[in-house]
Model the fold of this input.
Amino acid sequence: MTGMKQGAGENPFAEDPDPDAESAPSSTDKPHDDISYPNAPEEEKADDPQQVESQPMQIPYKFRRSSVQDGRDRVPLFLHAETKSDERDALRTLENQFGDNVSLTDLREALVIVGLDHLDEVETQLQQWGYGITFDE
Done:
């Protein structure tokens, strides 16, 4: 054998002809400047508006977690039978819409988040259960 095949790449045993050919990194160079971190402090984010607008795609929670409980606190939940039935119907409806299984835990958290965004409707429900009624005269 006469060495490496032609076109197979650089010879890993070859010496650099000029060790000063590569410039040392300057103090202003940052490693991985092309990577954008959405939660980075403002001073580290790019000043170019085009780069700020085109942030890398975030991997959805469903795919980056190791289990459905990952990153969540356990909270006991007690439901009336009618609410439990409505929850089951909602789960089936969403599974049909997505064409995929929907975790009951994900559904419940989504319902809480949406409820928090609609406190006026939550207030109405609580009033129907008797909240806000006073017996003082």
Observations:
- Residues 81-98 form the longest helix (18 residues).
- DSSP finds five helices and no strands in the chain.
- The two ends are 105 Å apart (CA to CA).
- The chain has a mean pLDDT of 76.
